[in-house]
Design goal:
Strand order of the largest sheet: 1-8-7
Structural class: alpha+beta
Order of helices and strands: EEEEEHHHHHEHHEEHEEHH
Helix content: 40-55%
Shape: globular
Number of helices: 10
Strand content: 15-25%
Low-confidence stretches: 105-114
Protein backbone atom coordinates (compact mmCIF):
# COMPACT_ATOMS: atom_id res chain seq x y z
CA UNK A 1 0.00 0.00 0.00
CA UNK A 2 1.31 3.44 -0.94
CA UNK A 3 1.55 5.24 2.41
CA UNK A 4 1.03 8.99 2.41
CA UNK A 5 1.33 11.60 5.14
CA UNK A 6 2.53 15.18 5.52
CA UNK A 7 5.23 16.54 7.82
CA UNK A 8 7.47 19.60 7.56
CA UNK A 9 11.18 20.37 7.32
CA UNK A 10 12.34 23.69 8.79
CA UNK A 11 14.73 25.98 6.97
CA UNK A 12 17.24 25.24 9.72
CA UNK A 13 17.48 24.50 13.43
CA UNK A 14 19.35 26.51 16.04
CA UNK A 15 20.26 25.39 19.56
CA UNK A 16 19.66 27.50 22.66
CA UNK A 17 20.99 25.82 25.79
CA UNK A 18 19.07 22.49 25.76
CA UNK A 19 16.30 23.54 23.35
CA UNK A 20 16.19 22.99 19.57
CA UNK A 21 14.32 25.75 17.73
CA UNK A 22 13.08 25.34 14.14
CA UNK A 23 13.25 28.33 11.80
CA UNK A 24 10.49 28.87 9.23
CA UNK A 25 9.60 28.57 6.45
CA UNK A 26 8.53 24.94 6.73
CA UNK A 27 8.67 22.71 3.66
CA UNK A 28 6.05 19.91 3.50
CA UNK A 29 7.14 16.38 2.58
CA UNK A 30 5.93 12.79 2.87
CA UNK A 31 7.99 10.99 5.57
CA UNK A 32 6.99 7.63 4.10
CA UNK A 33 9.18 8.40 1.09
CA UNK A 34 11.90 7.34 3.52
CA UNK A 35 10.16 4.12 4.48
CA UNK A 36 11.47 0.96 2.78
CA UNK A 37 9.33 -2.11 3.52
CA UNK A 38 10.28 -5.69 2.83
CA UNK A 39 8.10 -5.79 -0.31
CA UNK A 40 9.94 -3.08 -2.24
CA UNK A 41 12.35 -4.40 -4.90
CA UNK A 42 14.95 -1.70 -4.13
CA UNK A 43 14.96 -2.50 -0.40
CA UNK A 44 18.21 -4.05 0.82
CA UNK A 45 19.64 -4.65 4.28
CA UNK A 46 21.65 -1.45 3.81
CA UNK A 47 18.51 0.58 3.07
CA UNK A 48 17.46 2.19 6.33
CA UNK A 49 13.90 3.42 6.86
CA UNK A 50 13.48 6.76 8.62
CA UNK A 51 12.90 5.31 12.07
CA UNK A 52 16.08 3.20 11.84
CA UNK A 53 17.98 6.39 10.89
CA UNK A 54 16.46 8.10 13.91
CA UNK A 55 17.71 5.31 16.18
CA UNK A 56 21.26 5.77 14.86
CA UNK A 57 21.47 9.45 15.81
CA UNK A 58 23.86 9.98 18.74
CA UNK A 59 21.56 11.31 21.53
CA UNK A 60 24.51 13.08 23.17
CA UNK A 61 25.54 14.97 20.02
CA UNK A 62 23.52 18.18 19.74
CA UNK A 63 24.76 18.92 16.22
CA UNK A 64 23.72 15.45 15.01
CA UNK A 65 20.25 15.94 16.51
CA UNK A 66 19.90 19.38 14.93
CA UNK A 67 20.92 17.96 11.52
CA UNK A 68 18.33 15.19 11.77
CA UNK A 69 15.61 17.72 12.65
CA UNK A 70 16.71 19.96 9.79
CA UNK A 71 16.56 17.03 7.34
CA UNK A 72 13.31 15.46 8.56
CA UNK A 73 11.59 17.94 10.87
CA UNK A 74 10.98 18.39 14.58
CA UNK A 75 9.43 15.56 16.59
CA UNK A 76 6.28 17.66 17.02
CA UNK A 77 3.69 17.60 19.78
CA UNK A 78 4.02 14.41 21.76
CA UNK A 79 0.79 14.58 23.77
CA UNK A 80 -2.64 13.60 22.49
CA UNK A 81 -4.44 16.31 24.43
CA UNK A 82 -2.45 19.04 22.73
CA UNK A 83 -3.30 17.66 19.29
CA UNK A 84 -7.02 17.42 20.07
CA UNK A 85 -7.07 20.99 21.37
CA UNK A 86 -5.18 22.11 18.27
CA UNK A 87 -7.97 20.64 16.12
CA UNK A 88 -10.73 22.08 18.29
CA UNK A 89 -9.26 25.57 18.05
CA UNK A 90 -9.47 25.62 14.25
CA UNK A 91 -11.55 28.48 12.76
CA UNK A 92 -15.22 27.60 12.37
CA UNK A 93 -15.19 24.71 14.84
CA UNK A 94 -17.15 26.60 17.53
CA UNK A 95 -19.80 27.55 14.96
CA UNK A 96 -20.18 23.89 13.99
CA UNK A 97 -20.80 22.90 17.61
CA UNK A 98 -23.33 25.72 18.00
CA UNK A 99 -25.27 24.65 14.91
CA UNK A 100 -25.45 21.07 16.22
CA UNK A 101 -26.47 22.30 19.68
CA UNK A 102 -23.49 20.70 21.34
CA UNK A 103 -22.35 23.82 23.18
CA UNK A 104 -25.31 23.71 25.58
CA UNK A 105 -25.29 22.07 29.06
CA UNK A 106 -26.02 18.35 28.85
CA UNK A 107 -29.33 17.09 30.26
CA UNK A 108 -28.34 13.49 29.56
CA UNK A 109 -25.25 13.20 31.75
CA UNK A 110 -22.20 11.09 30.88
CA UNK A 111 -23.71 9.41 27.82
CA UNK A 112 -24.27 12.77 26.18
CA UNK A 113 -20.78 13.96 27.15
CA UNK A 114 -19.20 10.90 25.52
CA UNK A 115 -21.24 11.44 22.38
CA UNK A 116 -20.22 15.10 22.31
CA UNK A 117 -16.56 14.13 22.61
CA UNK A 118 -16.97 11.65 19.76
CA UNK A 119 -18.60 14.38 17.67
CA UNK A 120 -15.69 16.70 18.43
CA UNK A 121 -13.19 14.10 17.29
CA UNK A 122 -15.18 13.46 14.11
CA UNK A 123 -15.22 17.19 13.43
CA UNK A 124 -11.44 17.50 13.47
CA UNK A 125 -10.83 14.18 11.67
CA UNK A 126 -10.91 15.80 8.24
CA UNK A 127 -8.69 18.75 9.17
CA UNK A 128 -5.13 18.02 8.09
CA UNK A 129 -2.31 19.01 10.47
CA UNK A 130 -0.26 22.07 9.64
CA UNK A 131 3.25 23.34 10.51
CA UNK A 132 1.97 24.71 13.85
CA UNK A 133 2.72 21.21 15.18
CA UNK A 134 6.45 21.77 14.55
CA UNK A 135 7.33 23.36 17.87
CA UNK A 136 10.70 23.68 19.69
CA UNK A 137 12.02 20.44 21.16
CA UNK A 138 13.87 19.78 24.40
CA UNK A 139 17.03 17.66 24.40
CA UNK A 140 15.55 15.36 27.05
CA UNK A 141 12.46 14.83 24.88
CA UNK A 142 14.64 13.60 22.02
CA UNK A 143 16.46 11.19 24.33
CA UNK A 144 13.20 9.92 25.78
CA UNK A 145 11.51 9.38 22.40
CA UNK A 146 14.58 7.62 20.99
CA UNK A 147 14.93 5.40 24.06
CA UNK A 148 11.27 4.36 23.92
CA UNK A 149 11.44 3.60 20.19
CA UNK A 150 14.65 1.58 20.65
CA UNK A 151 12.94 -0.40 23.40
CA UNK A 152 9.89 -1.06 21.19
CA UNK A 153 12.13 -2.12 18.28
CA UNK A 154 13.99 -4.48 20.60
CA UNK A 155 10.65 -6.07 21.55
CA UNK A 156 9.80 -6.51 17.86
CA UNK A 157 13.21 -8.10 17.29
CA UNK A 158 12.65 -10.47 20.23
CA UNK A 159 9.31 -11.58 18.77
CA UNK A 160 11.02 -12.52 15.50
CA UNK A 161 13.92 -14.34 17.18
CA UNK A 162 14.35 -17.92 18.37
CA UNK A 163 14.09 -17.06 22.04
CA UNK A 164 11.92 -18.87 24.56
CA UNK A 165 8.12 -18.55 24.15
CA UNK A 166 7.84 -16.83 27.55
CA UNK A 167 10.29 -14.09 26.52
CA UNK A 168 8.54 -13.62 23.19
CA UNK A 169 5.17 -13.42 24.94
CA UNK A 170 6.36 -10.65 27.27
CA UNK A 171 7.82 -8.74 24.31
CA UNK A 172 4.56 -9.07 22.38
CA UNK A 173 2.47 -7.74 25.28
CA UNK A 174 4.81 -4.80 25.86
CA UNK A 175 4.94 -3.91 22.15
CA UNK A 176 1.16 -4.11 21.87
CA UNK A 177 0.69 -1.58 24.68
CA UNK A 178 3.40 0.74 23.33
CA UNK A 179 1.89 0.74 19.82
CA UNK A 180 -1.61 1.43 21.16
CA UNK A 181 -0.28 4.44 23.05
CA UNK A 182 1.90 5.93 20.32
CA UNK A 183 -0.45 5.29 17.39
CA UNK A 184 -3.25 7.23 19.09
CA UNK A 185 -1.58 10.26 17.46
CA UNK A 186 -2.43 8.86 14.00
CA UNK A 187 -5.69 9.46 12.12
CA UNK A 188 -6.65 7.79 8.84
CA UNK A 189 -7.72 10.09 6.04
CA UNK A 190 -8.37 9.95 2.30
CA UNK A 191 -7.39 12.19 -0.60
CA UNK A 192 -8.25 12.25 -4.27
CA UNK A 193 -5.57 12.05 -6.97
CA UNK A 194 -7.41 13.67 -9.88
CA UNK A 195 -4.55 13.13 -12.33
CA UNK A 196 -4.64 9.36 -11.81
CA UNK A 197 -8.39 9.36 -11.13
CA UNK A 198 -8.13 7.34 -7.93
CA UNK A 199 -8.44 7.68 -4.19
CA UNK A 200 -5.39 7.55 -1.95
CA UNK A 201 -5.35 6.28 1.61
CA UNK A 202 -3.45 8.79 3.74
CA UNK A 203 -2.55 9.38 7.38
CA UNK A 204 -2.75 12.51 9.48
CA UNK A 205 0.15 12.27 11.93
CA UNK A 206 0.20 14.45 15.04
CA UNK A 207 3.96 14.05 15.45
CA UNK A 208 6.95 12.66 13.58
CA UNK A 209 7.23 10.13 16.40
CA UNK A 210 3.82 8.75 15.38
CA UNK A 211 5.14 8.15 11.85
CA UNK A 212 8.08 6.19 13.33
CA UNK A 213 5.68 3.84 15.12
CA UNK A 214 3.49 3.46 12.03
CA UNK A 215 6.61 2.35 10.13
CA UNK A 216 7.52 -0.03 12.96
CA UNK A 217 4.04 -1.56 12.92
CA UNK A 218 4.23 -1.99 9.13
CA UNK A 219 7.55 -3.82 9.47
CA UNK A 220 6.15 -6.05 12.23
CA UNK A 221 3.21 -6.96 9.98
CA UNK A 222 5.35 -7.29 6.83
CA UNK A 223 7.32 -10.18 5.42
CA UNK A 224 10.72 -9.19 6.79
CA UNK A 225 12.13 -9.61 10.30
CA UNK A 226 13.51 -6.87 12.53
CA UNK A 227 16.99 -7.91 13.67
CA UNK A 228 20.08 -6.70 15.53
CA UNK A 229 23.31 -6.66 13.56
CA UNK A 230 25.60 -9.28 15.09
CA UNK A 231 28.61 -7.00 14.62
CA UNK A 232 27.55 -3.44 15.53
CA UNK A 233 24.15 -4.01 17.17
CA UNK A 234 22.26 -1.73 14.76
CA UNK A 235 18.61 -2.57 14.12
CA UNK A 236 17.73 -3.41 10.52
CA UNK A 237 15.01 -5.11 8.48
CA UNK A 238 16.10 -8.60 7.48
CA UNK A 239 15.33 -9.21 3.82
CA UNK A 240 16.41 -12.86 3.78
CA UNK A 241 16.17 -15.57 6.42
CA UNK A 242 19.99 -15.63 6.69
CA UNK A 243 20.45 -11.91 7.21
CA UNK A 244 22.67 -11.38 10.25
CA UNK A 245 24.36 -8.08 9.44
CA UNK A 246 22.96 -4.60 8.82
CA UNK A 247 25.22 -3.76 5.87
CA UNK A 248 27.81 -5.16 3.47
CA UNK A 249 30.46 -3.29 5.46
CA UNK A 250 29.61 -5.21 8.64
CA UNK A 251 29.40 -8.47 6.70
CA UNK A 252 32.82 -7.94 5.12
CA UNK A 253 34.34 -6.91 8.46
CA UNK A 254 32.98 -10.10 10.03
CA UNK A 255 34.44 -12.23 7.20
CA UNK A 256 37.87 -10.60 7.54
CA UNK A 257 37.90 -11.13 11.31
CA UNK A 258 36.80 -14.75 10.91
CA UNK A 259 39.50 -15.39 8.31
CA UNK A 260 42.22 -13.90 10.53
CA UNK A 261 41.01 -15.87 13.56
CA UNK A 262 41.08 -19.14 11.60
CA UNK A 263 44.55 -18.37 10.22
CA UNK A 264 45.83 -17.60 13.72
CA UNK A 265 44.33 -20.84 14.98
CA UNK A 266 45.99 -22.84 12.17
CA UNK A 267 49.35 -21.19 12.86
CA UNK A 268 49.14 -22.06 16.55
CA UNK A 269 48.52 -25.75 15.72
CA UNK A 270 51.47 -26.08 13.29
CA UNK A 271 54.45 -28.13 14.60
CA UNK A 272 57.58 -26.19 15.42
CA UNK A 273 60.19 -25.88 12.64
CA UNK A 274 63.46 -27.93 12.58
CA UNK A 275 65.53 -24.86 13.58
CA UNK A 276 63.32 -24.22 16.59
CA UNK A 277 63.49 -27.86 17.64
CA UNK A 278 67.31 -27.96 17.28
CA UNK A 279 67.68 -24.79 19.27
CA UNK A 280 65.48 -25.98 22.10
CA UNK A 281 67.29 -29.37 22.32
CA UNK A 282 70.69 -27.69 22.63
CA UNK A 283 69.69 -25.76 25.76
Amino acid sequence: MDMQAVWWKPRDVFISDTTFHPRPPFEPYNPFVHYHPHTLKQTTRSTKSLYYQFLQVDPEDQKAIAKFCCDYGMLGRLDNAGWIMWGMEKPGFADSLHIMGLNEPSPFGLLYEQDMRGTMLRQIAGIPPDPSLCIPMEWDDFRKVQGQLREATEWASTMASKRKPKEKGKAQTALHQRLRWKLSMVRPNVSRDNKKAKWRFTWDIGSLEAAFYLMLLSDVCGGGQIRNCELCGTFFLGITSRGRFCSNRCLNTFKVRRFRAKRKQRMSKQPASKEVLDGSSGR
